[in-house]
Amino acid sequence: MFDYDVVIAGGGHNALVCGAVLAREGLRVLVAERNPWAGGGVLTREVTLPGFKHDLYGSSHVWIHANETFNDLKPELEKFGLNYIWAEDHITGHPNKEGPGIVVYKSIEKTVESIAFYSRKDADRYREIYDEFVNIKDGFIKGMFSPPSPPSYLPAAMENSREGLQMLRSYNQSAKAFVFENFENPHVQTFILGWALAPQILPDQQGIGQTFYIMIPAIHIFGESIPEGGSMMLTTSLVRYLEAKGGKVLTNASVIEFIVDSKKTAKGIRLSDGTEITARKAVVTSLDPKQTFLMLVNGRHLNQGFLRMVRNFSFGTVSICRVHYALNEAPNFNDNPEINQTAFQRIFGSMRDIDKQYLEISGGVAPTDPFRYWRRLCKPYPPSKIAGIHYQHDRRQYFRTVYRHCRKSCTRQLVLCKRHHHWRRTNTLAKWLLPALPKLLPISFSHSKPIHDRSFVSSRWRNFSDGYDHGKCNA
Fold it and tell me: Which of 64, 198, 280, 428 has the most Cβ atoms closer than 10 angstroms to its Cβ?
């Protein structure tokens, strides 16, 4: 007799969405997660001061709203606590030492005008690329959320027109080559390349030209959001929904083996305490390839050529170091008040600075001047809501009024791009960085002192080398 219809190894947000969709269809689903919590990197915790809740990894939910399966499920999840709060206008700011910087708005027209301060030609080209994306959006989204097609399908579909061939050429370029070909102003080039590198790719990595279409034009269509109560509310609502449908989410349940029969058919999972859980219809893994096939499946069941490819699989060489702050006032960007209206700021230097940073990474050296990715999401709330979210409470008001209402306290995150093995969980970086910020960036504080020293208690980093740390989730 089988224990469940479907058993899922790993309890990240992708696993939970998978389980919820299957449970909606009437299947009994079990999700087994090694950690004491479900959701992987979709996690919110108090890591600085009481009442300051921080998303430790995934914060900005964008592409999940392009998934029609999730959109069909969302009304049900809202009954279990999920409530997305949307950026109504300002999305990201890009401070610059020269001029007002660039602001990405939900409005394509306002974004184009922001770029036009530096180059009207580049602004027009940005608009053209956005219009090109609108024309291919449906096919792009379908391909993104469908099983992988044979490699020849995309070229075959696009090679019969001049526009299709041009798009294929762009797709096969590196991010840096795409930027140089399409934009001429160095400030705009830095802005565009910084966006394209957000998935932790390399500037000269071939075949990455399409990331610009993913990272920039789509933001004007799908917008940007966070769940009220923090990213963890996505996790919480999924767990509640799945269990309401008769499923189960096990935490502190480490999978040590996939049970495979003599016909090489997966039948279930074995946990570290010896418990065996079997599945009637399917066994699903949401774990990375190395954990799944090198550690949890007996090698005799797998082709040696396949195992060799798994061993050579790379998680990448770029990581993120994140530091969380609790401050007694909001930093103010001096160059443009519009940037203070955004929740996210991407701070790059010049194209030469980007080249230097990735050259140091390729040489195994921690970057001496890495880019900065700031997130500031806060709004004071009534004392009656002290048990709720402070860090991300009512983001709609945040996007309307920003920090005018954040004079007493706010949270602050700084994300630094660092090669993983050069950083440890230490407060040294944080203690050095805050007093130095006005010297490094176009921002100012009337008081640079944090609320108190305990505000620096969390420095978290993602390790791409082992696959065990869930890291940042780009939901």
Answer: 64
Residues 6+ apart with CB under 8 A from 40: 10, 11, 12, 13, 15, 57, 470, 473
Domains delineated in the chain: 4-42+69-83+229-311 (3.50.50.60), 107-214 (no CATH)
* Residue in 431, 340, 348, 338 with CA at minimum distance from that of residue 378: 340
Rounded CA-CA distance 234/149 in Å is: 29
Report d(CA 355, CA 41) in Å as an integer.
29
Q: Provide the 3-class DSSP secondary structure of residue 235.
A: helix
With a pLDDT cut of 70, the percent of the chain lying above it is 78
3-state secondary structure string across 401-422:
HHHHHCCCCEEEEEEEEECHHH
**Please, which pLDDT band fits residue 443 given cuts at 50, 70 and 90?**
very low
Helix residue ranges, H only, 263-394: 289, 304-311, 351-362
Return the structure tokens found at 41: 């990197």
DSSP per position, 110-140: HHHHHHHTT-HHHHHHHHHHHHHHHHHHHHH
Please state the φ and ψ torsions of residue 314, each to the nearest 5 degrees: -115, 135
Q: What's the CA gap between 257 and 83, in Å, rounded?
A: 37
- Report the chain's C-alpha Rg in angstroms: 23
The pTM for the full model equals: 0.80
Q: Which residue has the tokens 């050429």?
A: 169
Backbone φ and ψ of 429, nearest 5°: -60, -50
291 secondary structure, DSSP code: I
What is the bridge-based pairing of β-strands 4-9 and 276-285? Answer: parallel
Q: 436 pLDDT exceeds 60?
A: no
Round to whole Å and give the CA distance between 162 and 457: 55
Q: How many residues would you count in the chain?
A: 475
How far apart are the C-alpha atoms of 315 and 308, rounded to whole Å? 15
- Answer yes or no: are the C-beta atoms of 245 and 24 closer than 8 Å: yes
Residues near 274 by beta carbon (within 8 Å), at least 6 away in sequence: none
pLDDT in tens, 211-231: 777 677 888 988 889 899 899
